[in-house]
## 1
Amino acid sequence: MKAGIIGVTGYGGLELFRLLSAHPEIDELFVFSSSKAGQELSNEVPHLYQIFNTKLRSIEQLDPGRLDVLFCSAPSGVSSELLPPLTQKNLKIIDLAGDFRINDADTYRKWYRKEPPPAPLADNAVYGLTEWNREQVKKGELIANPGCYPTATLLGLLPLLKEGILNPSSLVIDAKSGISGAGASPQSATHFSKANDSFSIYKINEHQHIPEIEQTIKTIANVDTNITFTTHLVPMTRGIMATMYAELAAGVNSQSIKEIYHECYGKKRFVRIFNEKTNLFTKQVYGSNYCDLTYAVDERTNRITVVSVIDNLIKGAAGQAVQNMNVMFDLDESEGLNQLPMFP
Ligand SMILES: NC(=O)C1=CN([C@@H]2O[C@H](COP(=O)(O)OP(=O)(O)OC[C@H]3O[C@@H](n4cnc5c(N)ncnc54)[C@H](OP(=O)(O)O)[C@@H]3O)[C@@H](O)[C@H]2O)C=CC1
Ligand SMILES: CC(=O)N[C@@H](CCC(=O)OP(=O)(O)O)C(=O)O
């Protein structure tokens, strides 16, 4: 198969390059840059020096007819303009940005403060939360790969919401991310001397992933929610931990929660259910496509705490994108994704 990557010099794009260059079904990989066309990829990223002699091509040189699959890992707002002229029969596209995730144009405008993508294409996009939308992904032509925080959050909450055992108006999600979640472009908040040895909260009640999470809870679990969702920056390179709190319906106990999770994810390759109250940490999934989950039922408060950890660049971005590609091309879902987590 022939694959292309737009945005390969960014963090998500580089992880796509790493995974796809080792993928047994990919024989040719074309890489595109909007700002460094003509240069060697390894000049930009020395960790690839003398391993790959791959030239960055301009996006104008992208011939969609020569590719089977195209990954777009550019900042949100870019793919709305870039992708419509590139869509064509027999080309599958996987977009890592937020552009095609939100169904309602006004909701997109409000949270992203950008113009939404053109309607016919946006309407055909499939939300690529692989574990939950496998059948739609299989038939999809354009996949909106989920956001990193929504992946961690939704994998943790959907099984319980679908069973109707959480009070939806009580949902509180407290999420923390490593700094690579903010991308490769330097910003004040991610400057070493500000972020190191510190811990910060950001986008309180304004995070663009709020409508994505609420929309997916509605479409998959048919539950209306208004979530409280708060994000924090942690001075580590990778990883997301989402800690989620909700009131439990009467009569629900630890045993029933355990059964729901095992029933839902027992046969899913990339979601691992740990025993109740396991002390999860982000490094246990570092560099891998796993989402690890645990939970704790508090009979004193009648609340549940659900904890989810992922690597934001793998299950939260490039790994899930490759997982979606595998499903779309009828390959083994774990093809190219069998790396063990890196530890310590
Ligand atoms: N970082 C993360 O953990 C996650 C990121 N995402 C999403 O994935 C996408 C990529 O994120 P990330 O890799 O972190 O971002 P980066 O900022 O690290 O990289 C984005 C890349 O996009 C390219 N780019 C910039 N402007 C344009 C343009 N106008 N046209 C084409 N390409 C452009 C740049 O490469 P060049 O100048 O060479 O073209 C750049 O390297 C974003 O939409 C992000 O929101 C989703 C989940 C997790
Ligand atoms: C740490 C950090 O800054 N993370 C980013 C995640 C960005 C992302 O995944 O963006 P889209 O889903 O909108 O494409 C953020 O919180 O905005």
## 2
Amino acid sequence: MAILLKNIKQLLQVREATVDKVSGKDMKHLPKIDNAFLLMENGVISDFGPMSQLPESKNFEEIDCTGRFVLPSWCDSHTHIVYAGNREQEFVDRINGLSYEEIANKGGGIVNSAEKLQQTSIEDLYQQSAKRLEQVMALGTGAVEIKSGYGLTTEAELKMLKVIKQLKDKYNIPIKATFLGAHAVPKEFKGNKKGYLKLIAEEMLPKIAELQLADYIDIFCEKGYFDLDDTNYILSAGKSHGLTPKVHVNQFNSIGGVKASVDQGALSVDHLEVMTAEDIDALKNATTMPVALPSCSLFLSIPYTPARKLIDAGLPLALATDFNPGSTPSGNMNLVVSLASIKMNMTPEEAINAATINGAYAMGLSNEVGSITKGKKANIILTNPIPSYGYLPYSFGENCIASVFVNGKIL
Ligand SMILES: N=CN[C@@H](CCC(=O)O)C(=O)O
Ligand SMILES: [Zn+2]
């Protein structure tokens, strides 16, 4: 049945279908309609406009939205929500003075998660991951990217990607899968990084491509993990199997990964906590979306992506959660939007643009989600009565969401 939302205080992020992302100064503009209606039929947005143009009532289920805001669901373009167990002991170790790097060097970190995941059955892994996906959907996430990278063996990486596929089949929000075999060098390959990269390129990638389990290819380009040569090798190998790069770069150090990723035609470069002028220059006139992950900065107490420098240089910016057991055990996009305003000096308009239309772009979904546009999926957030949309980032920690709609149906 068609659902009509009427008397909406403001309908946010109203866009023409031609807009796939917003950059620079345009990010300060959030197109909206006051006192609006929105009609959802057959899973998509079929009509919207001011109340003065409300269509003749047909067989609609009507919801009165007086005092409430409606916006597209959050588009979370960077997560690792398929993982096994948690790493709260490492969190306590950090409280007691160890750094993320020191924990990784003593066998914690990504390889710790990989050990746990290798010992977890696919059924159990699915259950743990599905629970997290349901949690984030209830928090307003209406499209999500999920990475592998906690397997680090052919069998375990395939297990992760198969779980992502099961999630795609079961849940009706758009889900994109990214193969991140090059997340860390596994213990069995200590001192033989090249051997592990060869395994990724010559064994894992062909199998993943044959089974059509991934949309994107990723690598953790960082000191102590994988260097520029490794990055070029893996991204090229991924591309030869039809996977577009989306890359972890500049989390702790700038080693040229941004330019290398742009040169490889990356759809996005993610993290960017440490950015040089050269890194920013490399992104100018590129189609690559920079992606900031402020809840990772919060959790690890590392710098925030210098959003102002990027946006003021005319660049676009997307926001995502990075939901994972080590650096960001949270998939709450509402918190991410708040942190963007509080810690990165992004205006509410910039933060909402970054978490919707630009997030959609960063996972190749801007023709399906990310804005209020006729024909796009009716994946929608309806807020509680709130004074203004600026209240969303302002009221950090408060849940302002009244209802979430997925394909035009209430969750
Ligand atoms: N930095 C690399 N990967 C994840 C964290 C991995 C972990 O600590 O488990 C990230 O994006 O933050
Ligand atoms: Zn990540």
